[in-house]
Design goal:
Blueprint lengths: L5 H13 L2 H21 L19 H5 L8 E8 L2 E6 L14 H8 L6 E3 L16 E3 L1 H8 L4 E2 L23 H8 L5 E6 L7 E7 L2 E9 L3 E2 L8 H17 L1 H6 L10 H8 L3 E2 L5 H4 L26 E2 L8 E4 L21 E4 L5 E2 L1 H4 L21 H8 L5 H13 L13 H14 L13 H13 L8 H11 L4 H13 L3 H18 L2 H4 L3 H12 L7 H20 L1 H4 L1
Parallel strand pairs: 5-6
Antiparallel strand pairs: 1-2, 3-4, 6-7, 7-8, 8-9, 10-11, 12-13, 13-14
Helix pairs in contact: 5-7, 13-15, 14-15, 15-20, 16-17, 18-21, 20-21
Amino acid sequence: MRLGCCCIHRKYASRTSAAPQGHKRGLAEAARETARDQSRRGPCRRGWPLPLGPCKTGVEKRDHERCGARTAGFRTCPSRMDGAPQLHPSSHDPMPISAMWESKRGRNALAAMSPFHRCPAAVTLLGADPEEYQPPIWKSYLYQLQQEAPRPKRITCSQEMESRPKYYGREFHGMISRERADELLEGAEGAYLIRESQRQPGTHTLALRFGNQTLNYRLFYDGKHFVGEKRFESIHDLVTDALITLYIETKAAEYIAKMTTNPIYEHVGYTSQRRNRVTRQLCRGPPQSRKVTFQQDNKIPSPSSLGLRPTARDQEKHCSYEKAHNFKTHTFRGPHWCEYCANFMWGLIAQGLRCTDCGLNVHKQCSKLVPYDCQPDLRRIKKVFSCDLTTLVKAHNTQRPMVVDMCIREIERRGLQSEGLYRVSGFTEHIEDVKLAFDRDGDKADISEDVYPDINIIAGALKLYLRDLPIPVITYDLYSKFIQGAKISNPDARLEAIHDGLLMLPPAHYETLRYLITHLKRVTMYEKENLMNAENLGIVFGPTLMQPPDQNTLATLNDMRYQKLIVQILIENEDILF
């Protein structure tokens, strides 16, 4: 087994040469077990290798410490770029690159690399052959600059200030002029103090020395200190982050402006895994093939005359729902690199954005360039109800939300002839029980007749799920298009306008609506028993499937009859529109 450095190799060889034959076999078996563990466990979802615990080769910790940067699972390559060693994964169990900060030599090895030198991280792609493994590249220039940034130096006041707020320390100097603050900070890069403004008494200013000049910032406190969007627990942290940001943006302004021009996003483990995962869904053809051309007469044309595929809704093909990433500002613990541009994410807090659905980490400026290819991680989906529709179906690799499928199957099995179906409400407590069952058990939830004999409970749970969606089935941005289409007096033009709106729905929303309307069409076939025709169902499902984006009460009341009409038209023309 190859080891990360020659000094360890010699010591390891001397030990094993004197060891009994059985002990040698034990070490060899341990090495094979290490390889099996790495192959079996693989990396995390984004490609970082999972920790495998202590080294299983018998090498002592003090021997690892002699290797400097190789402690982190790297060896020096004879080839050099810009005079800096190129680091490659060694045959030791690889660590994430962030682990190199645990040792001083590891930090020095990274900082020694040239500005545009690229350091391969110990990343393994899921399902990849270890011998064919090609690690992505991570760029160390911005990390190097962060290490070089000035350190904060607090300039304390020698006098006790009675007007000092309780949340400031000795760095508060009271009401002094800008000139006096400049004198106190002169010659000390990174020095700072807090003063009370002479122009606006009662307000406070942070005076910071950077670039041989004094910078003044209006300082705020609401439980945390801030001068902009970021909020800090202490003034020291605020100043440290400010110095890092100022230094990097001054030294690398041109580099930052160009760092998104050569992304590695298509080569990292996240994207490779996404390509290998196949999502089964309804593949709606190109809009041109599904365009409806309505005839100018008083009759609604037949599906064949419209050029539609009558059985298209029954055909399943392999394609992917597109989903935008749900990025939120995130504070990373320890060094992190952007998974789009491969550059370091600098600062102390709020260094970048993380997708709450899949965990992708990127710079704020890079987030605007990431494709709509989020593949949600089930471990991040905490519930079923109130979860974005596209997020849920992609996380579970299904065409439609499980709630819609399971509830409709149960209703069609035993409830189509139930009088007042969807109009009669079930017990609220039991509906909440069904909701909790789905959130807790997912597709293993038991909604059978033995548990919930009243079919109105299942129908109520389905309506609650659709009503609680953060983005309704008919999305906010298409709401006005559907309402305006419903206001058209000519039946043919109205039907064509609604069909155009359907083509613009996100794929997961379209498929869910298609499946639901097909079900409601079957409900109307039992109108004599359940007393629910298309108009009645429109009254029930209109406000459930579409809601105005501004949630204006007056607008909602005015649009209710059009919401009802839209659902009624969808049900009555289900075989034409879908």
